[in-house]
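About this split. The held-out portion is used to measure sequence recovery: a designer receives only the structure tokens and must propose an amino acid at every position. Recovery is the fraction of positions where the proposal matches the reference. Here is one held-out target exactly as it appears in the evaluation file.
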């Protein structure tokens, strides 16, 4: 059987175009996912507690919980389930999801940290072999370097959290918040004209 070099060349190029992009994507892609939702519920306090408890039960945590909503952090593997979870706990009014690739920035920061680690080793060697005057100068440089390293470590930890956990901000709406209880005045004429509603409900809160 005669081998066609031209065909082999085109097959190789074809396989390269298919395989290489997927390899490049998996090596650097780290997605930061943010979800914003508006949820109509019967009881905002109860709904907030249910959602935060569920979040913790699946390995996540919450950063804010109030009568107006909750901010949750769910493991990224649950991305496809978030919308259904919210629908089970109320009427979903709005649901927006945004994502950004922080992979390249992550790699850059890691390289910056690695270079500073190498520089730290060099500084320590210089301090060990320097006289007292030059040691003071090196120690100042060392403190600056350590501060930079701590800052880079903090950024890496933050980014680790960003791509491992979904950021979910949920705003609650309910009949109770839309229709606050009215208060009655000791003056009958105020009650008859529904005075508090007329002025905007300031005294009904």
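Reference sequence for scoring:
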């Amino acid at each position: 059987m005669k081998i066609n070099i031209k065909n082999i060349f085109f097959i190789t190029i074809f396989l390269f175009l298919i395989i290489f992009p997927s390899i490049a994507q998996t090596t650097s892609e780290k997605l930061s996912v943010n979800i914003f939702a508006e949820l109509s519920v019967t009881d905002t306090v109860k709904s907030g507690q249910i959602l935060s408890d569920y979040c913790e039960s699946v390995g996540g945590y919450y950063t804010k919980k109030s009568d107006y909503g909750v901010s949750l952090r769910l493991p990224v593997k649950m991305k496809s389930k978030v919308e259904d979870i919210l629908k089970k706990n109320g009427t979903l009014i709005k649901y927006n999801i945004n994502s950004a690739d922080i992979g390249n920035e992550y790699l850059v920061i890691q390289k910056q940290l690695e270079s500073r680690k190498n520089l730290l080793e060099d500084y320590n060697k210089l301090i060990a072999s320097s006289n007292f005057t030059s040691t003071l100068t090196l120690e100042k440089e060392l403190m600056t370097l350590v501060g930079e390293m701590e800052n880079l470590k903090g950024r890496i930890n933050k980014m680790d959290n960003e791509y491992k956990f979904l950021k979910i901000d949920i705003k609650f709406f309910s009949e109770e918040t839309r229709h606050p209880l009215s208060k009655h005045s000791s003056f009958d004429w105020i009650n008859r004209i529904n005075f508090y509603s007329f002025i905007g409900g300031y005294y009904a809160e």
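Annotator remark: The radius of gyration is 29 Å.
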